[in-house]
Structure formats: structure tokens, C-alpha cells
Design brief:
With 405 residues, the protein is α/β, with parallel strands linked by helices. It is built from 15 helices and 16 strands. The structure holds NADP nicotinamide-adenine-dinucleotide phosphate and magnesium ion.
Length: 405
């Protein structure tokens, strides 16, 4: 069989631990035999990030900006334990944070739904996609523990020499704590635009929610800017049949639990952080959660939402059998291939991405799955496959599909 040719390069970002092992297997058994592709390769293993003083991460992000499509393996975000474990020069920042910052992107997470892996929430029939504004708020805060009585205030000093603004926060009569947070108009607009882009592509209704009844300036600012962007893109949204719905965050949460799904839930940073974990476990497994970073110009980086699966990696190093689920990693590749195909106008590569995704789904639905899914599958599965066996089972299904075409 002749291989399908990918016209333009994909930026390939390698990573760490168990996901690095899976990465190699997926390429060797599920991609290379069928597609001829050129990748622009960046090694974001913790060792190489350390060796390059993290310059490789910046280079990788710039490459995505240049080529438009990237695919990323999970990477270690070093803490002090990792600094010791890998003898690092320092605890380098989160690569995802660095890449997100450079691309000015928004992260969208979408669960893969399978017939035999029912969501914990029985009303959920279609995926609920989360778009998380990944800038500012409590993640870039300034905090202060208050030792005793005193006055706390917000101060803004304009650079144009106009009057300094003071706003009281609280008069403390005893110990306490305060926090200052911020966001920027630019970043909120980018977030809204990325959400609109995604919703138009995926033809999904948009939901946005904040706590604007309480936070009449901060949260209301988000609500107003989002609305402005929706108004500015009204024609495109209408043409794609995409609706916009704003509600209070409490109301959104209550609705999500009794909704059948099939919409894009745009979230402020903290809501997105917390709610994406709730959705991931509610839909079955972290290994079924896909993730894509989309920037306002439509540049995309695909990845699995889970981490490097460190516990399984240590088992692997001890020579023990592992049962790590490669589904989200495979979908990161198919997502990137499909987007590349879309940009290049190559139908065959998009069809291959569809076939590989269908092969993964059919394999799992036929009862061949890894341990994480076997635990929640209906009917239950007694003998979960190993990491390799699962990939080979997918390859067999794919071979049958391709032969039938
Ligand atoms: P994790 O790698 O997501 O794994 C947590 C647990 O979830 C695993 O121990 C495993 O449970 C289960 N799990 C996750 N993915 C799985 C898969 N594909 N197949 C089967 N089970 C899976 O999170 P972590 O252990 O907290 O983090 C490990 C490293 O990943 C950290 O250094 C962190 O910095 C990094 N991280 C990277 C990213 C990223 O690059 N996007 C995201 C998150 C974390 P059992 O052990 O019960 O089987
Ligand atoms: Mg979280």
C-alpha cells in the first residue's frame, strides 16, 4: 500500500516519561506505516530543556506560530522533587504555560465518548467542550498575609501623570489575608475570539458565564468584552448557525449537570481549571480527554490533557507490565493531521485521521482496552491489555478498515 503524503510539516514536540514511550510506539505502529510526513522536531524532555536553559521550549512555540500546526507529548513541569531527580539547574517553568504565553492561545478540552464507557452523569449524551481562558486572575496574583491591624487598599498609578487612584479593600482589626489579581483587555478579547473561532469550526453553541452579579466591575468586564466580540462576529456566527448564551456561573454549573451536552463552555481561568477536571472524570477517564491550544489567528497545538503518567513509567523502568492508555495521545496526532490536511487541502490525510480515530473507538468498543477504562467499562472487562497490546489491537482494526476502503 502506498503511503499518504502530508504536504507541509507538522511541529512535533516530544516529552517525558511514559508518554514519551507511547509517543514513539504510536509513531512507529500507527503513523509511519501509513503516512509519509515531515515533522519539525523539538525535544522537550526535561533533560534537553535543562541543557538548553529552556530555549527549546521557546523555539517550539515559535515554530507552531510559523507552521500553524503542532502536536505535543506530555512534559514534566518540574517541582523541587524533579529538580533533585533530574539534577536540574532550576525548576524550569511549565512548558505549556510558556507555549500558551507565546502563542496567546486558549485551551479547549473535549472528551472522547464511547458506547461502553458511560459518563458518570447520565444526562450527558454529547461531549461538553471547555474553553479555558488561560491568562491572569488568581494564576498571576499578588497575595499578602496581614499580620495585624492596618488598612489595605488597591492603588493604581497611571504612567501619564494623572491622579493616583486608591480604593479601600478592608480595615483590618486583626490578622487576615489579601489578594490582588488582574486581567487585560487584550487577553480577554483573544480568549473570546479563540472561543468564537473554535465554535464556528466545530459548529457548537457558545456558553459563557461569570459571577457578574457580585463582581460588577471585574467579571462584568469579561461579560461585556465577550459580548462585544460576539457582536463583531455576528455574521460569521449566524452563517455557521452558532448561538451565544451568557448566564451566571452558578446557573451554568446547574444547567451543565442536567444538559445532554454538545456545546462549548467558555470559562474564566479558575472555573476552567476546576470544571475541566470535573468533566474529565465525569466523562470516564483522563486518557479520553483531548486538548487543543488555539490562538486568535487559528494556529493550533494538539495534545492529551493528561500528564506523563509517572507511576506507570516507574513500573515500566522496573520491567513490569504497564497498561497505559494511548487514546488521547493518538487523538492529538489525528487532530494535528486533520488540521494539517485542512490547511493543505489534502482530503486523504483528513480521511486517514478519521479512520485512525474510528479504529481506536471500535477497538475499545469491542472490549479491547487498557486498565483505566476496564475499571469503568459497561460491561466490565476482566483482562485489560498492556500498553503495547492496546496499540497493536488498534493497528489490527485500522488495517481491516483500510483494507475494506
Ligand atoms: P498524570 O500523568 O495525568 O497521571 C495521573 C494518574 O492518572 C496516573 O497515575 C494514572 O492513574 C492516571 N492516568 C493519567 N493518564 C493516563 C493514561 N494515559 N492511561 C492510564 N492512566 C492514566 O498526572 P501526574 O502523575 O500528576 O503528573 C505526572 C507528570 O506530568 C508531572 O510531572 C506533571 O508536571 C506532568 N503533567 C504534564 C501535563 C502536560 O504536559 N500537559 C499535564 C499534567 C501533568 P493510576 O496511577 O491510578 O493508574
Ligand atoms: Mg485543574
Amino acid at each position: 500500500m502506498s503511503k499518504i503524503k502530508v504536504k507541509n510539516p507538522i511541529v512535533e514536540i516530544d516529552g517525558d516519561e511514559m508518554t514519551r514511550i507511547i509517543w514513539r510506539m504510536v509513531k512507529e505502529h500507527l503513523l509511519r506505516p501509513y503516512v509519509e510526513m515531515q515533522t519539525v522536531y523539538y525535544d522537550l524532555s526535561i533533560e534537553y530543556r535543562d541543557a538548553t536553559d529552556d530555549k527549546v521550549t521557546v523555539d517550539a512555540a515559535r515554530a507552531i506560530d510559523e507552521y500553524g500546526v503542532g502536536v505535543k507529548c506530555a512534559t514534566i513541569t518540574p517541582n523541587q522533587d524533579r529538580v533533585k531527580e533530574y539534577h536540574l539547574k532550576q525548576a524550569w517553568p511549565s512548558p505549556n504555560g510558556t507555549i500558551r504565553g507565546i502563542l496567546d492561545g486558549t485551551v479547549f478540552r473535549k472528551p472522547i465518548m464511547l458506547k461502553n464507557i458511560p459518563p458518570t452523569v447520565r444526562t450527558w449524551k454529547k461531549p461538553i467542550v471547555i474553553g479555558r481562558h488561560a491568562y491572569g486572575d488568581v494564576y498571576k496574583n499578588q497575595e499578602l498575609q496581614i499580620p495585624g491591624p492596618g488598612r489595605a487598599e488597591i492603588v493604581f498609578t497611571p504612567f501619564d501623570g494623572s491622579d493616583v487612584v486608591h480604593k479601600p479593600i478592608h480595615i483590618f482589626h486583626g490578622p487576615g489575608v489579601i489578594q490582588g489579581i488582574h486581567s487585560t483587555e487584550k487577553s480577554i478579547r483573544s480568549f473570546a475570539r479563540a472561543c468564537i473561532q473554535y465554535a464556528i469550526n466545530a459548529k457548537l453553541p457558545i456558553w459563557f458565564a461569570a459571577k457578574d452579579t457580585i463582581s460588577k466591575t471585574y467579571h462584568a468586564y469579561f461579560r461585556d468584552i465577550f459580548q462585544e466580540e460576539v457582536d463583531a462576529h455576528r455574521e460569521q456566527l449566524d452563517a455557521a448557525g452558532v448561538t451565544y448564551f451568557y448566564t451566571l456561573i452558578d446557573d451554568a454549573v446547574a444547567r451543565v449537570i442536567r444538559h445532554e451536552g454538545g456545546f462549548l463552555w467558555c470559562c474564566m481561568n479558575y472555573d476552567g481549571d476546576v470544571m475541566s477536571d470535573m468533566l474529565a472524570s465525569g466523562f470516564g477517564s483522563l486518557a479520553l480527554m483531548t486538548s487543543v491550544l488555539v490562538n486568535p489567528e487559528g494556529k493550533m497545538e494538539f495534545e492529551a490533557a493528561h500528564g506523563t503518567v509517572q507511576r506507570h513509567y516507574y513500573k515500566h523502568l522496573r520491567g513490569e507490565r504497564t497498561s497505559t492508555n494511548s487514546t488521547a495521545t493518538i487523538f492529538a496526532w489525528t487532530g494535528a493531521l486533520r488540521q494539517r490536511g485542512k490547511l493543505d487541502g489534502t482530503q486523504e490525510i483528513m480521511a486517514f485521521a478519521d479512520a485512525l480515530e474510528a479504529a481506536v473507538i471500535e477497538t475499545i468498543e469491542s472490549g479491547k482496552m487498557t486498565g483505566d477504562l476496564a475499571r469503568v467499562s459497561v460491561p466490565t472487562v476482566e483482562n485489560p491489555l498492556s500498553t503495547e497490546e492496546f496499540i497493536f489491537a488498534i493497528r489490527d482494526t485500522l488495517e481491516q478498515k483500510l483494507a475494506a476502503q
